[in-house]
Amino acid sequence: MSEARSAAAAQALTGQAQPDQAQPGQGATGPRLITELKVSGHLMSLDSGLFCIVQTPSTPRADDGTGLPGVRVSLPPGPISRPEAVSITSFRPDGWMNGAADAVLVRVHGGPAQVLVTIYQAPSGIDTAPRLQVLRLADDAGAQPFMPAPAPAGLGAQRGGGRGQPRQLPEVVAHIQRQGDVGASLGTWIGQKGSKRWIEGFVLTPQKGVSPKDLEYQAVLGRGWLSPWVEGGQLCGSRGMALPILGLRVRLRGEAAENFDCSYSATFVDGSEIGPVGPGEPCEAESLAPMEAFEVSIRRRGEAAEPAPQKPRQAARSRPAAPRPPEPPPMPRGRSAPVPAGRSKAGAPGRRAR
């Protein structure tokens, strides 16, 4: 029976079904095997630069559980594809765009170059095509082709002790402008205050008390514009796209939210500092300046925060003691100390001789 259903599905895909055979989904005896979708593809030519393809808000649609309509941005097939000149980064791990908060970054070097935008809609959808907007974020005619980011700084000393053991990554990794990936621990600052180098993306992977699956976070991308929630251990933001994030939101879920407290702070390139704020609260500057450093703390509820480590004080240099003044010579016995002129022995003013 399964072979017959597989054959029917294959025939439906290739359009080779026989006229006297019932098409999948048309018979009353079996479930629908294949659903035809409304699919449209568009080739988009982009000059050199950094672009953001975002889905703009439209009329709310009822959620039918299919996730449609959905949009994917990819390289086109065939000789017009230029993977060495085009890099595509989605804010969602699965690469889809199906909501107003979803976006895709496209960086083109040595343009013009083409990308393929494919839109998938439900077969019964009426006016369900999403509205897309292309924003040019930067002119990047002289940019170099996209290269994978280097390993986070300081990871060499964190390898497993035995041979073949997996490397232990830091709890916090941030991709910093013109610096690459940098690692740190939860409860410590990552990024440099006052450096004016913004953060493009970050990963939180707690290793004590809280599982990465119990943590999720967002990046602030604009006024009222947030990236989708991502689970611990996944990149939020981008790498190598020269696109700063403007803040963050972090929260715990499940039992971890009942047993642990979460707070975070951040500094921004305009000199402002925000925080600490509570779980789920946006940590962003009023000016929406790019974020240059941040700190995330997770501790068991009721547990006092650990004091910040202090720098060791340098020992004060000993100074040579000042020389003591010489003591006056001892007075002979039976003689009293000379009395200053004009003073009597009793301390009253003396009388002058006439």
In words, what does this structure look like?
Among the domains are: 37-138; 168-300, no CATH class. It is elongated. Strands 12, 13, 14, 16 and 19 form a 5-stranded antiparallel beta sheet that branches. It has a 4-stranded antiparallel beta sheet with strand order 4-5-2-7, with no helix packed on it. A 4-stranded antiparallel beta sheet has the order 9-8-11-15, with no helix packed on it. The chain is mainly beta and 354 residues long. The protein has helices at residues 2-14, 255-259, and strands spanning 38-46, 49-55, 70-74, 86-90, 103-108, 113-121, 132-138, 172-176, 180-184, 190-191, 199-204, 215-222, 225-226, 230-231, 236-237, 247-252, 260-268, 273-277, 283-284, 291-300. The model is unreliable at 17-25, 141-163, 308-319 and 344-354 (pLDDT under 50). Helix content is 5%, strand content 32%. It has 2 helices and 20 strands.
